[in-house]
Structures are given as structure tokens and as C-alpha cells.
Design a protein that fits this description.
Oligomer: heterodimer
Order of helices and strands of chain A: HHHHHHHHHHHH
Strand content of chain A: under 5%
Structural class of chain A: mainly alpha
CATH architecture of chain A: Orthogonal Bundle
CATH class of chain A: Mainly Alpha
Distance between the termini of chain A: 41 Å
CATH superfamily of one domain in chain B: MetI-like
Number of helices of chain B: 14
Largest sheet of chain A: none
Helix content of chain A: over 70%
Structural class of chain B: mainly alpha
Radius of gyration of chain B: 24 Å
Strand order of the largest sheet of chain B: 1-2
Number of strands of chain B: 4
Shape of chain A: globular
Largest sheet of chain B: 2 strands, antiparallel
Largest interface: A-B, 86 and 95 residues
Order of helices and strands of chain B: HHHHHHEEHEEHHHHHHH
CATH superfamily of chain A: MetI-like
Chain lengths: ~280, ~300
Amino acid sequence: MKHTKKWSKGISYTVLIIMAFLFMMPIYMILVTSFKPIQEISMSTMWNLPQNPSLEGFIKAFEKLGPNLKNSFLLVIPATLISCMIGSINGFIFAKVRFRGSNIIFLLILFGMFIPYQSILFPLIRFLQSIGLYGSIWGLIFAHVIYGIPITTLIFRNYYVDVPDEMIEAANIDGANMFKVYKDILFPLSLPGFVVVIIWQFTNIWNEFLFAVTITSDPTKQPITVALVNLAGSQVVEWNLQMAGAVVAALPTLLVYIFLGKYFIQGLMAGSVKG
Amino acid sequence: MRKSRKLIGFLVVSPSIVAIAIFVYGFISSTIRMSFSNWNSYSKLVNGEFEFVGWKNYERLFKDTRFQTDLWNTLFFTLLFILACIVIGLFLANLLDRKLKGGRFFQNVFLFPYALSLVVTGTIWSWFFAPGNFPMDPSGINLLLKNLGLGGLQWGWFTSTDTIGHFNVALIPVIIAATWQLSGYTMAMYLAGMRGIPVSMIEAAQVDGASNWQIFWRVKMPMLKTVTLSAMIILGHISLKIFDLVYSMTGSGPNNVTDMPAVYMYDLTFNRDRYAMGSGVAVIMLAMVAVVIIPYLLSTMKKED
């Protein structure tokens, strides 16, 4: 009995190591390529380790993508913070105050997070043109704030539902009004919720492509995802540059994942498994 | 007092309600309206020459071989992608559910691709699968196969125009890339589900002499039905609207072998000024997603009441 257990453990580890190896293969390739100098870029040696590791690719990638990296931060930070505030307030109302029809309205809001954005894209662009935000980072921020309402509301609502009603009732008896209940009871309790939603929105908006490529056409205004695709489309030979660019584009969300992984996983659970 | 509280509550969320009413439902209506119009050129758009043409755009789309290919591609992509994610996700979750030492490390390895942008994934895998001038001068995975003495297995990957029935085999590398990104996520869903299964149930089965295999199928799987359903719906709605990955990895490909409705919609609307037809594609995409999502939303809501 003990013997077979040891065996099955051994097999489990072997399988896990093989799977981990397969999962890491593209990462191996992206890393070895990004650290190669241009002379070493050749199809026949693409799996080899760099002979003379060099930062050439990264220096060039920063030169080319630096402005877009900055655009991404200028987009993601305000969009995340604004949609977080809206989500928190909405979540509080839908979880703890409620009003006639609030469940139906909540459902109608939720549907907004599943729609293919293609189905609102053209009217959205015309609207942004009419208010003068088309082509700017602010136009993108606007889009992400509006279409972020469903997911942020959902995560905060699910978070607040677990706060015991007694806490709120007690505050009401004391004559504390609704805003005080939110400010003094729910808001301080919801800091971990804020971390989850901030990480979630940060990652999603950073990684987003469809709005970015259609709302900003001027290359100096584009976020990094669009710039990366353009880089890959324009250069055929400089693979070290492209792979370094991919690393640069991935790094911020990857760092968030590495250091705040716990909240990242909470976010993806809160955003998917409901009820 | 109570009543006024509810009124204030409604007022507080009303800006969001108005925003969703306009920017989701209002804009969907205007896309639907546009899909029945003659706006298939830039001049008609700027001059505002709006005319209803009935189902004409839809008729054209369904007769269009590119759009037909897109629908077949979506069907095969969705089925194979969901299947691959669920099989791999379940397999990994079951291995990691045994509380192995270092399990957290493996979990992180499998989940990290989820944190990447689909555009980054597309860029990486387009190079990984770039076939090169095989069999003599291959690149990427073909080169690896050649070096491993498996040169006979080289093929065109996403540039191949081979088909099996209506299935374009060039989709396989795209499905692999998508599965790489989302099977870890599926694993995380199953792991969360497995933690919800009472240990006593599994111990009871062990006492009765059940093997791991039997425990998996007879005890765990029935308890994971809802997770499986959620995973299928979430993965399904991702694949029905997939755009970033295909656009950055392969584009439409030769003979549209890796084309998708979302890529065609982009092409029609932003490269060819066929706004009405592009809107038609968008409406069809919305209908496909709605068929999957609306019953799901209604059922989760019912469960809560």
C-alpha cells in the first residue's frame, strides 16, 4: 500500500514536470531570443542559448516602445481608479441597499460584460468623434470606464454581500446615514476588495487590444499592445527586438501576477464563478 | 426612512444605469439598425444617405465564402479549444489537488499565461510555429522536430491550407496557443471546485477501497458539474469573439484558413468601409454570445433567490 503511494506520487511529479516544461517552452524561446545580439538571430540557431548575451534588443525595444509604454500607464491608472470607485459604490447599493427591480437591473448591467465589443464599436467611435475624444488616451479611458462598470460592480457586489447585515442595521439604528455607513463601515472593510478589483482592471485594460487599435490611430497615442503588433508586422528580421518588445509589454502584468498572485486569483474567481 | 434610503440608492446607481442603457443597449440597437442599412461606403456615411435595405447585408454575408469559412472556423475552434482546456485543466487540477509539496509552484507555472495579453501570446506563438522553408531550412517548432530526428513530422502549421472536411488544420496552432493561455485558468476553476468537496466524502470512498481513478469519476466529477458548465460557458464566449490572438498571430491566413468573424468584422469596418456589413457580422457575433450567456445569467440569478 505504502509502496504504491510512493509510486503514484513519483508519477504525479513526473507528469507535472513534463507539463511545466511544455508550458515554459515558449517562454524559453522568448527569453533566449530577446537576449541575443542581432548577429546571432538566425533561424537555424533559434533554439540555442545566446553566445554573447546582449541587451541590444531591450534597448531598442525601449527606444521604440517607450512612448507607448507611457501611454499604457497614462491609460491604465486613471481608468482603473475611476472604474474602481464606480464599481464600489454600485456594488454597495446592489448588495446592501437594493430597490424595486434592482436584481433585474443588475442582470441587465452584467450582460454588458459579456457582449462582443464589436457590437457597440462603430457607434462608440462615432460618439467619441462627436465629443472630440476619438484618437486620444481620454477616449480610451472613457471606453474602459464605461465598459468596466459591469465587472467592477459585480466583484464589489459579491464582496459586500458577505458583510453581515447586522453591522449595517446597527449603524442605522444609531442614525448613521447611508453615506456614513458606506464610508465608515463598508469602505474600510473593502480594502482587500479594492486590491482585487484594481489588479483585475489593471491587467485587463493593460492587455486589451480591440478598443486600443480602433480608437487610437495615431502611433504616438497608442498603448503598448498596439505598438507591439505594429512592431511585429513591420520588422521581419529583428526577432530579438520583437521578443524583447513582447517581454516589455508583458512585464507589468507579469510582475503584478508574481507579487500579488493571491489577489489575482481571487479576482479571476470573483469575475467568473458567481452565485 | 426606509423608502427614502431606497430612493437615494437608486439615484446613486442611476448614472451607471443610464450609461449602460446608452452605451450597451442603445449602441447595440444602433449597430442592429446599421446592419439593415446601405452604409457600405465612406461617402454614404459622411453624407448621411441612410436607407433601409432589409436583410440584404445578411444575405450577402451568408452567401460570402469568407464568412462561411469564418463560421466553420468558429465552430471547430470553439469545440476543440473548450475540449482541450477542460481536459488539461481537469487533469492538472486533479494532480495538484493531492496536496503535493511544491504544488503551488506548478499551479503558478500553469496559470501565469493568463496574466499575459493575447497580443503577447500571439506574437510569441507566431514565431514559435513559423514553419520556415521546411523540410530543408525550417524554423521554430519544425526546426526542433528536425533536430530531434522527427523531421518527418514537419508541416506548415498555421500556413497550411489542408482541410479535413470543413476543418482547416491551420487552426490547430491557434488552438494550442489559446489553450496554453486558458487551460491554467480552467485548472484554477476546477481546483476551487475540488476544495469545496468535503474531505470526508473522499475518505469514505478510500475506506471502501475505491481507487484514485474511481474516486475521480464517481465522487469528484459529479460534484464538479457546475464548474464544468461555467468553464464551458466562459471559454465558449471567449472563443466566439476571439480577435486579438488571431489578429496578432496569423491574421486571416491563406484562403482565410485562420479567419474569424471578429477579424472579418474589423476588416470590413476599418479597411473596406463596409460599415453595414461589418455591423451585420457584429450582430451575428452578439447573437451567438447571447445564446450562450443569457441562460447562464438567468440560471445563476435564480440560484441566488
